[in-house]
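Subject: mismatched residue count in predicted assembly?

I count 375 residues in my input, but I want to confirm that the predicted structure covers every chain. Input:
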Amino acid sequence: MTCKRVEWQIADWVAGRLSERDAQSVAEHCRTCARCASLAADERSLRARFAAVRTEDRQIDLWPAVAVRSSGWSPVRRVSWARRLVVASSLAAVCLGAVLAVGNRMHSSPQQGAVVVAPAVDEAKAVRLVADTRRLPDVDTDAMIIEARYTAPVAPHGSGE
Amino acid sequence: MAGVLAGMCTSLSTHPPTSASVSEQRLSDEELLRACASGNRDALRELTHRHQAPIYRFLLRMMGSPEDAEDAAIDVFVKAWVNAPRFQFRAKVATWLYRIAVNIARDAHSRKKGKVQQPWPEAEELNRMAVGSAEDDAVRRLDQDQESARLHRCLAKLSESDRLVLVLYYLEDREYDEIQRITGLSYTVLKTRLARARRRLRALMDAGESEVDS
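Triage response: the counts match. Full output below for your records.
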């Protein structure tokens, strides 16, 4: 065993905290090494000084003061991780739902079956064309509507519409 | 047999004991803390009675002043009461109380840093608590008291972290794993700090002795 290793263990050896095998190794080393033997003597002296100040349990009653000081407090419950997870996921679900609802409303398609008429198209003309298709079932009504949409006069810019 | 079974049932029970059972039977620290967590003040009283002496003594050694130590010890039990539901029973209750005590002592130490400190420790208080049988002769007791006072004066000159490991190792006689849990240090750091603290203390004591000799 090296001096460095003994130095590391010497306090525990003096305190009787080492295993039997380690204690034997340190004891053997100290028999042949004056420096380590001197360290062991120093440690014994230090322990003796500490042993001299070992104290008895003093008769002290802290309970009256503890009772008064703790009366304003109650034990604080620890919130478990499972509960935190449930609360967090519920909040996340609510937020996600709200976002989806708003998004749906913003991008919602118009009612199915309704005829979309471009604002520039003359509505009266479009209605007339639709009415005409009822009388002439062979006519391609879609083509007529498209034609009406793209041939409608464009309102001049800044016309006050 | 019935008594043994009843005891086993009590120790295995996860339900916190009632106020009546706390005062009637000797419960383990863990059971008392569970009762504290459910708001049982009798359990807190029992826990305080059980641990007040070692906690006070430890704080007295760390802080020096009996008034400060008593105040800090009261705080330890109030904090234990408030935080009882958070204790996860991985360490011993006593170790947890020591850890709270260390934190309180550290806070008090950092608060006091700028202020002028009173001479530490209260040698009279510690000497009053010193062990001594009736047969001890007066001279031996006086020597012991002087030695004790000198050691405490030297301990007071050390840093708070050095003093903590020395007090726990030599005076409280704690095992390494317990000191590790109390201080939060790894084994290697603890051993290194202990060696450093020991060296510094020895140097201070040697210096003190040479002053006395001269």
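The domain at 14-112 of chain B is CATH 1.10.1740.10 (Rna Polymerase Sigma Factor; Chain: A). Marking this ticket as 'not a bug'.
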